[in-house]
Design goal:
Layout: E1 5-7, H1 12-26, E2 32-34, H2 41-53, E3 59-64, E4 72-78, E5 81-89, H3 96-110, E6 118-123, E7 127-133, H4 144-156, E8 169-171, E9 174-176, H5 184-202, H6 210-224, E10 231-233, E11 242-244, E12 250-252, E13 258-260, H7 263-272, H8 279-286, H9 293-300, H10 302-312, H11 315-328
Parallel strand pairs: 1-2
Antiparallel strand pairs: 3-4, 4-5, 5-7, 6-7, 8-9, 10-13, 11-12
Helix pairs in contact: 4-8, 5-6, 5-10, 6-11, 7-9, 10-11
């Protein structure tokens, strides 16, 4: 691992001693001094933390952290404790981290403690910043999946008059339209499948002819999806977007929220694996599903798979083709 940065202003010999301890503890190869006299994003983060906490905050260490392939992510060690920060270029993804903050806040408002607390978000012409409570990860305990099922069901029980959301957001780095509809089928077709399908065809990642197959599936969707109220969704619930905190409880991160059909979250969890076999049974004991969820899961997963086609290409296109061809043959 490389890179961590250290704020100046300390006795140099004490600082070298701290650096050596830090490198040993985290296995870092390089540690750099951080000059906060310039208008760096780190200086902006210090100011944001100071405003949030109402006293001067200084960054002592920065530990590179996993955060996917979109944002730069760090754990900030400060004189006020640890914080998790995401950073990106404002010119690339304007509004992205602000929308993520809104999603985290809404989920936490509905189910207290389900996400890291949002400390601050910031956007200017150069930087996007999102500062969060740092969650110390722990090993999932025996009751983790039961707790997870109960808390996800609690999120899903929060409903709305319409499918969609009052604002658009992002899924991964792609814009996600949440224009509201009164029925799930219209929303699924017009705001989820068609934009991603058009993008994949325009970029030649899927053949033009596949659109005709999708049109046939669209005609059958009213008989496929059961009638349910809109449910608040995480929206991007693969294994990398939930974790066990040090106290053993579940935390959700990186949401792409909207009000939709709740099986979208459950199907995506199954798609990318990592869930305990007991999870769905725990969920159904709390909030039963309509029959034949397994048959609908493939149709639900066309959306995240098309997103992956547009982000990464490769074998995801083959998975989309397999689902639509198998469904066409039923």
């Amino acid at each position: 691992m490389t890179v961590s940065m250290i704020a100046g202003g300390f006795n140099i010999y004490d600082r070298i001693h701290e650096l050596n301890k830090f490198k040993f503890a985290y296995g870092l190869e390089k540690v750099f001094f951080l000059d906060n006299s310039f208008d760096t994003w780190q200086a902006k983060a210090e100011k944001l933390l100071g405003n949030a906490l109402n006293f001067e905050v200084k960054i002592e260490f920065m530990i590179p952290a996993g955060g996917g392939c979109i944002n730069e992510c760090f754990i900030l060690q400060t004189n006020a404790g640890k914080f998790f920060v995401k950073r990106n270029d404002a010119s690339k993804f304007p509004g992205m981290l602000r929308m993520e903050a809104k999603g985290l806040r809404l989920l936490n408002e509905k189910v207290n403690g389900i996400t890291p607390e949002v400390i601050a978000e910031y956007e200017d012409r150069s930087d996007l910043l999102l500062i969060l409570e740092n969650i110390e990860k722990g090993k999932p305990q025996k009751e983790f999946w039961n707790d997870f099922a109960g808390r996800l069901a609690a999120i899903h029980r929060h409903s709305n008059e319409f499918f969609g959301l009052e604002h658009d957001n992002f899924i991964g780095s792609l814009p996600q339209s949440n224009r509201q509809h009164s029925d799930w089928v219209s929303f699924f077709i017009l705001e989820r499948i068609e934009p991603q399908l058009k993008m994949s065809i325009d970029n030649k990642r899927l053949p033009k002819g596949i659109y005709r197959v999708f049109e046939k599936i669209f005609l059958r969707l009213p008989e496929i999806f059961p009638s349910e109220k809109p449910a608040l969704l995480h929206g991007d619930l693969w294994a990398g977007n939930y974790l066990s905190a040090s106290d053993g409880s579940v935390r959700l991160i990186d949401p792409a929220i909207y009000f939709g059909f709740r099986e979208m979250d459950l199907a995506m969890m199954k798609l990318f694996g990592g869930i305990d076999p007991s999870f769905l049974q725990h969920y159904e004991n709390i909030f039963p599903l309509e029959k034949e969820f397994e048959k609908r899961a493939g149709i639900c997963n066309l959306y995240p798979l098309l997103v992956h086609v547009n982000l990464f290409g490769g074998h995801y296109a083959s998975e989309v083709k397999s689902i639509v061809m198998n469904f066409q043959g039923r």
